[in-house]
Amino acid sequence: VMRMARLMRILRLVKLVKFVRPLLFMLVGVVAALQGVCWVLILTVASLYAAGIIATRLIGHRMIFPPDLELADSMLEPWHSVPESMFTLFRVMSGSLSSKEEAAIEELMSALPSLKFAFVFFMITSSWTLLSILTAVVSENMISTTQQQYEDLKLTLFEDERLLQAEDLSALFDELDKSGEGTLHRRAIEAAMQDPDFSRQVAVRLKMSKRG
After folding, report:
1. Contact, 142 vs 172, CB < 8 A?
2. Which residues lie below 8 Å from residue 203, measured CB to CB, with a gap of 6+?
3. What's the CA gap between 78 and 209, in Å, rounded?
4. 140: which residues sit within 8 A by CB, 6+ positions away?
């Protein structure tokens, strides 16, 4: 029973989203942006994979260090394999390094200061650039989708208004059809339009200004 009650709450939330149009448009925009977000994630993984290969070969396999330089195993531990290098670089990119990884990177920078430029380049190209791309993709998709939703809403309202106008005019001219044949002659319409009250009603239904 409690589970059913919780499901009913979810259904109420769905109804709320459906009736609040700005919230619905935003939700549709987020769903439309998911495809672009997936491509950005693929680009992120590809970038981390390429950087992980380079880091593993240069740091983990000691290709960048002089042969006679002694290095602690703890400094090379985060770069032993490509998956470990990718995870370490991801934590560098997200700013969530552990104390052990921070100590290893600090030792690495002390042993080879030129690597600081490589890490700065990685942060600029990965964190800042990819974040900017992700923000741009989500914003573009949400804006375009929201505009399309508003255009569709305008078309729907215009069509509903046109149908209402057609029904009002049909009811108005049915009053002139005294014979009940369903047709009106031109003279009868012209004569009816001479009546100020009738012409005013037609102008109101068509949202036109009545010309004298």
Report:
1. no
2. 209, 210
3. 78
4. 36
Cα three-residue angle 61-66-69, rounded to 5 degrees: 90
User: Can you read off the two tokens belonging to residue 22?
Assistant: 């700005």
How many angstroms separate the CA atoms of 85 and 57, rounded?
Answer: 10
In angstroms, how far is CA 100 from the centroid of its own chain?
A: 37
Give per-residue pLDDT as tens, 180-201: 666 667 777 777 777 777 777 7
What is the residue-averaged pLDDT of the chain?
Answer: 79
Per-residue pLDDT tens for 120-142?
Answer: 888 888 878 888 888 888 788 77
The contacts found for 46-49 with CB under 8 angstroms, 24 or more apart, are: 47/125, 47/126, 47/130, 48/86, 48/89, 48/90, 48/93, 48/126, 49/82, 49/86
Tokens 């589970």 label which residue?
3
Q: To which residue do tokens 């703890």 refer?
A: 74
Backbone phi, then psi, for 202, in 5-degree steps?
-65, -45
